[in-house]
Specification:
The structure holds 2 protein chains of 2 kinds. Chain A is built from 13 helices and 11 strands. In chain A, helix 3 packs antiparallel against helix 4 and helix 7 packs across helix 8. Chain A is globular and about 75 Å long. By secondary structure, chain B is of the alpha/beta class. Chain B has one domain: Alpha/Beta hydrolase fold, catalytic domain (Rossmann fold). Chain B is 35% helix and 18% strand. Chain B has an 8-stranded mixed β-sheet, with helices on both faces. In chain B, strand 7, helix 10 and strand 8 form a beta-alpha-beta unit. Chain B is globular, with a radius of gyration of 18 Å. Chain B starts with 13 loop residues before the first helix and ends with a helix.
């Protein structure tokens, strides 16, 4: 496939080959293919052998770009061609000479895919893995708790789920059971974190509210809401805690239901200043402060608030008005969220560090 | 995950589905006439001389007479130092009858040259729509006659000459076997028909199962047959040498190897062709690969399905051609 990537680049020099590499591994992860197939894809994409090693018990697998197994020990490799895949697993590309442009992204996705394939989640009944069961409210509570136990989660602990699309960029990877979960928004990379988790860096990514094991399905839903509220590059990582009970409500509101306040917010969004102004109102204490944040005169802000009041049919600064405005604002952003669409080619992550 | 699917069809194998994420960038699922020029660039083969050198394969280009005496370029590929009396293969390349060149997909069959010592003649037959039927098939037939007539000079055993082709080339190879039988032409020892394009009528179930997905969907196939046959497509006048599915008599043909994907439009016509050969008392080996999209072994030879396809084909060819 390296040759095909070269053809695509010649046809369209601006094409993002990195995205195609990502999409390729997305499908491999969703298809739950084995380690050899993952290495074969990486080797085929890179045009050089790819390898995998597990420390205990020792396993070594090297695969050529044609998908055949290569015998013997791997050569000495520059560290840029090696990626740890956690828990005593490592993957590499056997590149001679300098790195090719897609080596970093290929290696990063290979490491991610191998980690998921070798995760503690084993396939059992229902043909789904533990994390998929744990985060599904429709699965019986006993089965969810059993799935949690199989992932090493305790019934007394409190956890969160972090959710990211498979094309997310991970600059620092958190530790925790992880897997890919099919959702109506496409396959989602989910990781279980402790309630107090070490800082990590991923874009876009949503972190759910903290719950017990049997409510982790709720944490996952709030993580999905948080994820869809991301607006990279400014807000690439959103924690549901910021919105508390509002996210709890949004997480359990079926999409597409009749929500008059949200529909009126769609109308406000047709003004060039609309959403930014509402954003300023919901994050400040006063009209004066909202005007300052928006960089407009106090009287301009007052005029805009009058338009907003007239459109919504209630005063957004009075009583429950603020809560209604905030909920409608978030509901509108969820409906219009583009964060799970593949990023445009110009935003391609062409300088991605390998997994730490 | 919600999925709106109006057509029921077999899924692609996961490794192959992943491959499509890359393949789609240079070979769109749906090829309309306005994409022919794009495909002529995107599907043009890359320079292969390094590969030939690495594998110890000598390439000699030569001009041979095509249909109506036109000059065609062929490449003769042989293992360095191969002696005379080698098996011979006449190869028809892929590309929907409209694009590709004599080296398209050739890397998959080079094992026959360097491992089995075959001499391969691969042909730049003329392409539709500029050269519609009968040019592509009659160019190939002229190249077959030339190869048979020059066996001694080419170092080919006259009793061990095989035709092979992939996709559109598979259809041409099947047509060559029919024409050679009917015209008392060169005796063939085998025909390799990889996911062959056999039927211009487009009426099979598999044809309607793959619209807008994979490689070479229903619309692409119509584009190819329209380019070749124009308004004759689907009419009773179409020659079985152009669309071998139309042949009424499949007896007396050389042994056939036919492979095809379960997840491609050519599935049903390939199965039917093998079945018709068996009914006529002939020798056909048919492989239907689960989850395989069209020509997946060319685009994704590293996958389990791709490797299996190549291995099964090479095993059959060794049986037919091996010393």
């Amino acid at each position: 496939m390296q040759e095909l990537l070269g053809r695509i680049a010649r046809l369209d020099p601006s094409a993002s080959l990195g995205l195609r590499v990502i999409a390729c591994f997305d499908e491999l992860v969703v298809g739950n293919v084995n380690t050899r197939a993952l290495l074969a894809a990486a080797a085929s994409l890179a045009g050089c052998p790819a390898g995998f090693q597990q420390e205990h018990p020792r396993r070594l697998l090297r695969v050529s770009p044609r998908g055949t197994v290569v015998d013997g020990e791997p050569p000495e490799l520059d560290s840029v061609f090696v990626a740890p895949a956690s828990d005593g697993l490592a993957v590499w590309l056997e590149r001679e000479g300098p790195a090719f442009p897609n080596d970093a992204i290929t290696l990063e996705r290979l490491a991610l895919a191998v980690r998921i394939r070798h995760g503690r989640g084993r396939r059992d009944h229902d043909n789904r893995r533990h994390l998929g069961l744990l985060t599904d409210l429709d699965v019986a509570a006993d089965d969810r708790i059993a799935a949690g136990a199989a992932l090493g989660l305790t019934t007394t602990g409190r956890y969160r789920v972090a959710a990211a699309p498979l094309f997310a960029v991970w600059l620092r990877h958190p530790d925790g059971p992880e897997d890919v979960i099919p959702t109506r928004h496409g396959p989602i990379h989910a990781i279980v974190l402790a309630e107090s988790y070490d800082a990590f860096d991923a874009t876009p990514c949503g972190v759910g509210v903290a719950t017990s094991v049997d409510d982790l399905h709720h944490s996952f839903r709030t993580a999905m809401v948080a994820l869809r509220l991301c607006s990279p590059p400014e807000d690439g990582l959103v924690c549901a805690d910021v919105y508390g009970g509002l996210v709890d409500m949004l997480a359990d509101t079926p999409e597409g239901r009749h929500q008059p306040d949200v529909e009126r917010m769609d109308e406000i969004a047709t003004y060039a200043w609309g959403l930014a102004t509402v954003g300023a109102i919901v994050t400040t204490q006063s009209v004066r402060e909202a005007a300052r944040q928006s960089g407009v005169h106090h009287s301009t802000m007052s005029t805009r608030i009058e338009v907003i009041s007239a459109t919504l049919g209630f005063d957004p600064l009075d009583g429950f008005g603020r809560a209604r405005l905030g909920l409608a604002y978030l509901g509108h952003r969820l409906r219009r969220s583009k964060v799970l669409d593949l990023p445009a080619p110009s935003l391609a992550p062409d300088k991605i560090t390998t997994l730490a | 995950m919600t999925r709106v699917t109006s057509v029921v069809r077999p899924e692609f194998d996961p490794e192959l589905k992943a491959g499509l994420a890359v393949v789609g960038g240079m070979f769109p699922p749906t090829i309309t006439p306005d994409l022919i020029d794009f495909m002529r660039v995107s599907y043009a083969s890359a320079p292969l001389d390094d590969l030939f050198a690495e594998r110890g394969i000598e390439r000699v280009d030569t001009e041979v007479p095509g249909h109506e005496g036109a000059s065609l370029t062929v490449s003769v590929l042989r293992a360095s130092g191969a002696e005379s009396d080698r098996p011979g293969v006449l190869y028809a390349h892929s590309g929907g009858l409209m694009f590709g060149d004599r080296f398209s997909g050739i890397d998959l069959v080079l094992d026959w040259v360097d491992r089995l010592g075959a001499v391969m003649v691969t042909v730049d037959y003329r392409l539709a729509p500029e050269y519609p039927d009968p040019y592509p098939r009659e160019d190939m037939y002229a190249a077959l006659e030339w190869t048979a007539a020059h066996c001694e000079a080419l170092g080919i055993r006259p009793d061990r000459l095989m035709v092979a082709g992939a996709s559109a080339g598979g259809g041409l190879a099947a047509g060559l076997a029919l024409a050679a039988r009917d015209r008392g032409g060169p005796r063939l020892c085998g025909q390799v028909l990889d996911y062959p394009m056999l039927d211009d009528r487009g009426t099979t179930a598999s044809t309607s199962q793959f619209d807008g997905v994979g490689v070479w969907d229903r619309v692409s196939n119509e584009t190819g047959w329209d380019a070749l046959l124009g308004t004759e497509r689907g009419a009773g006048s179409v020659s079985p040498y152009a669309a071998p599915s139309r042949a009424a008599d499949l007896s007396g043909l050389p042994p056939a190897f036919i492979d095809v994907g379960a997840a491609e439009i050519f599935r049903d016509e390939a199965i039917a062709y093998a079945d018709a050969i068996w009914r006529a008392g002939g020798d056909a080996e048919l492989h239907v690969w689960s989850g395989a999209f069209h020509a997946c072994d060319i685009f994704a030879p590293h996958t389990a399905v791709g490797r299996s396809m190549i291995h099964a084909r090479d095993t059959w060819v060794e049986k037919i051609l091996g010393d």
